[in-house]
Write a structure and sequence with these properties.
The chain is mainly alpha-helical. It is built from 7 helices and 2 strands, in the order αββαααααα. The protein is globular and about 60 Å long.
Length: 196
């Protein structure tokens, strides 16, 4: 049962990446590359190189490129919820497992504090590329009490406060991610135990 859920989630990851590529194509901006990479040299993952997305003139178009994958994930989660609700036995269990995995991926992928589609969409929507990088750099300089680079020193007080707050939240999100991954693994173990 569970291998099928994982295979289907893997297919959803493939279609997630293809959704980014499709929106790029619809905006007359072909993706540079589509492929498979090894995550931590072990787990094959699909990817789409959408480096040229900045060339899309419309801010809405650039946001659409970022959110195409999560939109795909939401469609898969809705299908998994229907299977979990209307299915029975092993089919329902596959739907429940997929729903759990897909919602976990969706929440993680839309979080604007971690480097992912949600964070990229937020940067594009705000018109502030590399917002996260600059915010974390500002916090690092403040914590280490080093001189700010000219690009950060030029910020006015309101912008510096906003960047400091965002950078601090990004740094605090890292241990939170570790805790959430532990809870996720524990929940998945419970789901697996229930299935066996």
């Amino acid at each position: 049962v569970l291998p099928w859920a994982f295979v289907l989630v893997y297919v959803s990851v493939f279609t997630h990446e293809m959704s980014h590529a499709l929106v790029c194509e619809l905006l007359d901006l072909p993706a540079r590359e589509l492929g498979v990479a090894l995550w931590y040299y072990m787990l094959p993952v699909f990817y789409v190189d959408r480096t040229d997305a900045y060339r899309v003139q419309s801010r809405y178009g650039r946001v659409a490129i970022c959110l195409a994958g999560p939109g795909n994930d939401l469609a898969w989660a809705a299908a998994a919820a229907a299977v979990a609700h209307y299915g029975s036995g092993e089919v329902a269990l596959i739907g429940q497992t997929m729903l759990f995995l897909l919602l976990s991926l969706l929440v993680t992928n839309l979080n604007p504090l971690w480097p992912n589609d949600g964070q990229q969409a937020a940067e594009v929507a705000l018109g502030d590329p590399n917002l996260r990088g600059r915010a974390m750099s500002l916090v690092a300089h403040l914590l280490l009490r080093t001189t700010l680079p000219s690009n950060l020193a030029a910020f006015g007080r309101p912008r510096r406060v906003a960047y400091t707050l965002y950078g601090t939240l990004c740094l605090l999100a890292l241990p939170l991610l570790a805790v959430l991954m532990g809870l996720w693994a524990h929940s998945l173990y419970g789901l697996l135990e229930h299935a066996l």
